[in-house]
Protein: Prenyltransferase
Organism: Imtechella halotolerans K1
Amino acid sequence: MYFLLIKPLVPSTPLDVFQWSLLVVASVCIAAAGYVLHAIESVDIDRVNYPNRVVINTHVQEKSAFNLYIALNMVGVGIGFWVSYQLGKPSYATWFILCSALLYLYATSFYKKLLIGNLIVALLVFLNVLTIPIFAIIPMLPAFKGFVVSWIFQWSLGLGVVAFIVSFIREIIKDAYDMDGDYSFGVRSIPILIGIRRTGVLCGVLCVGTALLSFGIMYRYLYTQLPVVLYVLLGIIGPLLYISTRCFSVKHKKNIPFISTFLKGILVAAAGILVLMYFTIINP
């Protein structure tokens, strides 16, 4: 987003390439820390759901993994604070503290709560989409206002909302695959509550709703750009409608991995629209 959208349209952004690189490193470190902590906290559940993929206490000792979690968090939050200070906005460091805190709460308790864990993961994806626009543009808003800034934020929000919903759907459908271990250890999830088939129907409805939302965004902002319209139809809306049919017909756990992977591909396709926009709208 930085090179394809923000830098071409707002060349005077205070966020330089080095600072952008540091923001990426900070985000990766904090996300990795959350993954490590979740692996520690869910090791017993993973022995049931993914017996061949358990790392904690098989390849890495729990104490070493926890030290890695602390180190990754310190690096991520520390870099975030440094970049915020360099931009003259030290309070922006709370953005990284918030993400780290959400990942901690998710790993230690909220992933066992009905819907809360799913919403936290989706929210973190949404926040990740907005990180670069916020750090690149908001510090200069008093001196730079107008259509360009509004357009960038509208697009960032639109992309973030679609990513939020698709991530939320993916988290719910993944819970269907993890039902056995989750049920054994008291995790509350939609599939445990209503069963795999009804979970599939719910995810199918959400996929159709996301396709309609994507069509509305496309019609509102891109209807004059034929290449982008075709990309959205074939790369996002079409796949969402297709995977909705797979969700409606899901009956067994064996159907879940394909749906989960396909939804991840839709997230990648949604990000890919920025490349096409750059070559067709921003720098044709």
